[in-house]
Design brief:
This protein is mostly beta strands. Helix content is 0%, strand content 37%. The radius of gyration is 17 Å and the shape is globular. A hairpin with a 5-residue loop joins β3 and β4 (30-36). It starts with a strand and ends in a 24-residue tail after the last strand. It is built from no helices and ten strands. Strands 1-2-3-4 form a four-stranded antiparallel beta sheet, with no helix packed on it.
Length: 178
Amino acid sequence: MVQFNTTSANEIVVESEALRLLVQPLCGGKIKSLFSKTTGREFFWQDPRTVLSPRDYVAHDLSGYDECLPTIADCLYPDEPFKGRSLGDHGSVWDREWEARIEGDRVVTSVSASTLPLTLNRTLSLPEPRRVRLDYAITNASEHYLKFVWSAHPCFAVGVGSRVVFPDSVKAMRVCIP
């Protein structure tokens, strides 16, 4: 059974028998924590810094899991009518306040990008005690065709002896350590 607890306007705790997640809608929709109640392990890296900036990606709280939309690296939009518009480092949804509501056994969140007329909708559920499911939809509110990139952006807690296993189809990986 999934349980919800809203400890504040910016914290929704989602729990099963095995997992506890902390979602922060007002901090870019961040999933701040994914914690195993069975093993006591936190799966997401927790940023130890105390001085943070809410507007500079590398200076904000890098803990957990956030979203990159409409781009990952800062770049300029290539086509009219948005040609030359800066799309922001890691996009333009990580630093926005997201709307959030609990619907049945799901947390439904949404945000509009600040740089292009795109809306990102994410639905989080725990369909099984040890399984997290994230469903996404992106809506273009423009009459124009839009180019964009979306990326999940989890910061996993790893250390000596950790292994990352990919399917054979993956030929390259980039690792960034803050």
